[in-house]
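Researcher: Next sequence.
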Amino acid sequence: MALGKTSARRPDAPPPMNLWRVRDFVVIWWAQVTSRIGTQISQFVLPLLVLSATGSASTAGLIAALEQVPYMLLAIPAGALVERWNKQVVMAIGNFTRAVLFGLLAGYLLGGGASVLFIAVTVLGSGVVYVFFDQASSTVFPRILPAHELARASGWVEGTTAMTEVLGPALGGALIGLGTTTMAGAGYAFGADAMTYVIAGIGVLCLRTSLRPVAVQERQGSLRSSIREGVGYLLSQTELRRLALANFVNIAALGTVWLSFMTLMKTEFDINTSRTGLLLSLGALSGVLGSFCSGILHRRLGAYGVMLFTGLGWSAGELIMALAPAPWAAVLGMALALWVAPPYFSTLYAHRMSIIPQPMHTRINSIYRLLAQAGLPLGLAGGGALLESLGPRGFLTLAAAIFLMTAIIVQLRVHSGKNH
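Model: Next structure:
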């Protein structure tokens, strides 16, 4: 059996659907895009707000990190709980609750409030709500679309998410400029964020597909036994376990792409911060393009073919940056690495949703997403230390080897397992 053809398209596979004619997909896509624009606005504004209120960069970083803490603590139990609940209700409550939280924060700031404690409590509350919302929203597509469309649908979401990462900060900066002070401007920004959650919540309520629990028995038994069953299933399934570990390694390595690029620009090419930011933006546009290639690549190469393709792409991109003789070559390498990322994440999502029993989708997916959330900061911390000791070119060469090794091991392990 040739590498990468494990999940290749069968000759009798149905043709691609017109996703724009699938009403509930359009509804959930629009709700996610709207809320993510608001999220990007607040994530841009929050550090500026805290910095303005305290004058401390460390405090600003600490408050911004608070929103991620609940995910590390609650992701797995939240996955087991959401499996028992109506996901439409969970998503609607999540959107409206965050609308209330950020609406109150907006009113507080516009009224002249400046307490860092109030801001911190709001951010922490939003983080708790997001954990449950994320477990529900990340497993909705398998209930709306057939399995062969999951990679393409996920790719579209990845692409629009990338665009919101560009649009959100621009809107955040414009809204801050409307205020007479940074605090007042932040109030306008958080007010706009609250409105996006209201719009998203209304959209979720318009879904027609039933998102009630798949099996009534899943709501029986203790929460602990439900979590134990989910973790046990993941650990007992060789393919799922290896994909989860490979994804953790890839996420950790990917977290260093921006850091290594910025270091290379500064130390090797003496490029200033503003020009580096412009080059990063140019490279990031390739990620938007890559996201809309996800469905095509998945249909032509199959799940493991895409994983091998992206592993090779990441390795080549990092190596091009490591050997770059000029800034334009480094931008080309980064653009390649960012272009193949959306097809990888979309394909991995579609493949794991297709091999996990539907009644366990949320529990297993929560573990995957927890590992991804943990991999990013660990990769940044470890990558920062390695960058200092190896230099940007040495570190990029090491990262290329890690991507290549992970891609090959996944392929060999999977096909070895199937041959047995």
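Model: The radius of gyration is 22 Å. Residues 1-11 have pLDDT under 50 and may be disordered.
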